[in-house]
Design brief:
By secondary structure, the chain is α+β, with helices and mostly antiparallel strands. It is built from seven helices and seven strands; from the N terminus they run βββββααααββααα. Bound molecules: zinc ion (ZN).
């Protein structure tokens, strides 16, 4: 029986081995949500897919529906972002954390999330051009991706009572910045510039983000990671691997 075909723009999140020559490709598509599809013979030199199904690529893909897994029929590369940073450890690890987060935020397949697709596309594209430090690109993505899931940290107002800030205390378990009345035990007191950086990254204010200092970036990354891990059932595998040693650099080169 001939299976129904569909065509969509997609980002390659992950590639897993399936036997000698085949691969299972995890895709975040624009209109079909997250999809897993088999690419047959992708390892052969004669593969009609060429190298277009490598991680972090933006592709135009055609798949046929299957009972458990779909099958890749055709693929065209739109922007193979991964090629720009495969040998660049800081950018590669940031892209891995972005892809894993996108996968974890789409637990149900075929459930479209256009906003998450756009955020992922934007973040991988930003890593490819190396216009901003990779840790900033990652943290901006994580903050905005958490917002699509409904658990962005409160920054401008108290996470508990809503009193307008800025507030100096931050509590992951309370949901972000907290006022002096609501501050639970164990709250941290990040530098005001760190909270300003989180606000700038959420808003896409790159002038402030690019001008931030390394220790504020590190503190920001720690808070963002803690907030994310708190909300995910299991921690991200790739997040502890992110290379933050070049936090003050622009392009990690
Ligand atoms: Zn409060």
């Amino acid at each position: 029986m001939r299976r129904p075909l569909y065509r969509d723009h997609a980002l390659v999140l992950r590639v897993q081995r399936l036997g000698e020559a085949d691969r299972i490709i995890s895709l975040l598509t624009r209109r079909h949500g997250r999809v897993r599809a088999v690419a047959k013979g992708v390892r052969k030199t004669t593969s009609r897919f060429g190298g277009r199904l490598e991680p972090f690529g933006h592709v135009d893909i055609q798949c046929s529906e299957g009972s458990s897994l779909d099958t890749v029929v055709q693929v065209e590369g739109l922007a193979l972002f991964g090629r720009e940073f495969m040998d660049d450890y800081p950018r590669y690890t940031a892209a891995s954390a972005i892809a894993e987060t996108a996968e974890r935020l789409t637990p149900v397949e075929y459930e479209p999330s256009l906003r998450l697709f756009q955020l992922t596309l934007g973040a991988l594209g930003a890593l490819a051009v190396a216009e901003h430090a990779s840790t900033l690109v990652l943290d901006a993505f994580l903050l905005r991706a958490m917002a699509t899931a409904g658990w962005a940290p409160a920054l401008a107002e108290c996470a508990v009572c809503g009193t307008p800030g800025p507030h100096s205390a931050f509590s992951v378990s309370a949901g972000g910045a907290v006022c002096p009345d609501c501050r639970p035990p164990g709250s941290t007191r990040p530098a005001p510039s760190t909270l300003e950086l989180m606000v700038a990254l959420t808003a896409g204010n790159w002038a402030i983000a690019d001008g931030s200092e390394a220790h504020h970036r590190r503190e920001c990354s720690g808070l963002v990671a803690a907030h994310l891990q708190w909300h995910l059932e299991r921690g991200l595998r790739s997040l502890p691997l992110v290379d933050r040693s070049t936090g003050s650099g622009m392009g990690d080169t």
